[in-house]
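Sequence, please.
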């Protein structure tokens, strides 16, 4: 259909309606029916957005987390210091704070070294040091390390096909991160593809009799920077030593393996200690009509131990803190309570989300919506909700108000919106997350380079604006969003 005709067809009914309304308004004695007030007042959303863009509260909270505490792996002193720091900041801002106890895993990295000790063409007396980092959940090598041939495979299918070659080998699973996908808005897909060897590889290789497993680091920006992360072992499978190798060193082994056998010496000394005490931090802005009903806005407080956790997920926690602080500073009290949650132990166990779910599962009707921000760094583009199209349309004023800052995209997406809120979502609570520019997120993800300088203060302010506007709107609706059927 030609564009001009399409436009005419769209506006013709509205032209008629406008004339009819104007005519009725001029008839003597005819009272004009009052229009129904909007479910969410756009003027209030504008106030929230603008206040968030002018506030440095979240940046100050993030700087304190990243620079004054640093790494916050579950079970560490840093994790508990962070919970105390966040709780104190929220109480000082006038929120009602609860420290919710959580038993968390306590895994300690230890020493990590590797070197190539034999390969075709090696000059006498020459070895090559490799850059790697232990994966969370890894077992230790013998105290003196282990020396074994390297078996190079290029994915899980090849590992299965070469099962007979695995026993006694150090298996290297080398799958590159697809930056092309990340550059085109599909960083999560790139992470899933390259991450499968990290998620499943050590368990599969252990079952096949491997001595140890290395995976090519799951990330981009190859600056010989290893990316850590958790791995897991199936029930009944004995954990083995497992580490992530820098992309450059994985490619080195590929080249050397093309010329002949490669032998490696590997030393990893992690320890798994008894579970430790941790805490979710809850900070409530009580609702004016239904304080017993909650809208969660959240990020996870723990981080890996290589960097300072500024982007993963200090940025998400700080943005959630900033969101409730902005509402409080404006004197706003929506119908329902807005609850900020700084989750414990997302990275290597998700115990915080599970503990919270256990505390509310007997009264799930009080949990009306949950937002989690855990994909920070770039500018927010909008948000997605694991809800129906019809329910999402009720949030149209949110998208409209955020459009001026480039964050007006609003879309539905099935499935998990965040690791920590997944148990709530599985029980039917609508879940939301920001849509963020993730082109460079995996340059630094789970590395020593996850530091405060990577975060753009203005991108953080925009994320505060998004979370504040969205959480207020969800809490202010006359009726909560419809529950989501299990499995959607």
């Amino acid at each position: 259909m030609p564009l001009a005709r399409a436009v005419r067809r769209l506006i013709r009914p509205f032209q008629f309606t406008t004339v009819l309304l104007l005519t009725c308004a001029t008839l003597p004695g005819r009272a004009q029916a009052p229009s129904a007030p909007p479910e969410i007042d756009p003027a209030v959303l504008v106030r929230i957005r603008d206040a968030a863009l002018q506030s440095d509260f979240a940046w100050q909270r993030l700087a304190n987390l990243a620079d004054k505490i640093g790494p916050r792996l579950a079970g560490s002193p840093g994790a508990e210091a962070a919970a105390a720091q966040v709780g104190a900041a929220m109480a000082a801002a006038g929120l009602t704070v609860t420290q919710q106890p959580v038993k968390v895993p306590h895994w300690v990295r230890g020493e990590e070294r590797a070197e190539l000790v034999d390969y075709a063409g090696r000059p006498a007396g020459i070895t090559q040091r490799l850059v790697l980092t232990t994966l969370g959940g890894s077992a230790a090598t013998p105290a003196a390390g282990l020396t074994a041939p390297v078996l190079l495979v290029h994915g899980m299918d090849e590992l299965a096909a070469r099962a007979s070659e695995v026993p006694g080998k150090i298996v290297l699973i080398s799958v590159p991160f697809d930056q092309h996908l990340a550059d085109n808005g599909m960083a999560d897909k790139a992470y899933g593809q390259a991450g499968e060897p990290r998620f499943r590889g050590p368990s599969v290789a252990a079952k096949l009799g491997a001595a140890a497993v290395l995976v090519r680091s799951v990330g981009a920006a190859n600056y010989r920077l290893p990316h850590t992360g958790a791995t897991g072992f199936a029930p009944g499978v004995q954990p083995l030593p497992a580490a992530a190798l820098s992309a450059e060193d994985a490619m080195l082994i590929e080249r050397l393996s093309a010329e002949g056998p490669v032998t490696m010496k590997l030393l990893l000394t992690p320890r798994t200690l008894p579970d430790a005490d941790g805490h979710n931090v809850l900070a409530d802005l009580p609702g004016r009509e239904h304080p017993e009903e909650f809208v969660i806005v959240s990020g996870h407080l723990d981080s890996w131990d290589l960097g300072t956790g500024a982007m993963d997920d200090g940025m998400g926690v700080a943005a959630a803190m900033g969101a409730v602080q902005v509402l409080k500073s404006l004197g706003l009290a929506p119908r329902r309570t807005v609850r900020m949650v700084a989750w414990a132990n997302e990275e290597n166990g998700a115990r915080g989300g599970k503990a919270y779910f256990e505390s509310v599962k007997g009264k799930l009707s009080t949990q009306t919506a949950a937002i989690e921000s855990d994909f920070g760094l770039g500018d927010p583009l909008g948000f997605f909700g694991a809800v129906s199209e019809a329910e999402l349309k009720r949030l149209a004023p949110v998208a409209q108000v955020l459009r001026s800052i480039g964050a007006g995209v609003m879309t539905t997406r099935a499935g998990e919106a965040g690791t920590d809120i997944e148990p709530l979502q599985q029980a039917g609570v609508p879940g939301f997350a920001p849509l963020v520019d993730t082109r460079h997120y995996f340059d630094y993800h789970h590395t020593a380079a996850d530091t405060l300088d990577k975060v753009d203060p203005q991108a953080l302010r925009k994320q505060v604006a998004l979370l504040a506007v969205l959480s207020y709107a969800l809490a202010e609706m006359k009726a909560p969003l419809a529950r989501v059927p299990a499995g959607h």
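Confidence is low (pLDDT under 50) at residues 1-33.
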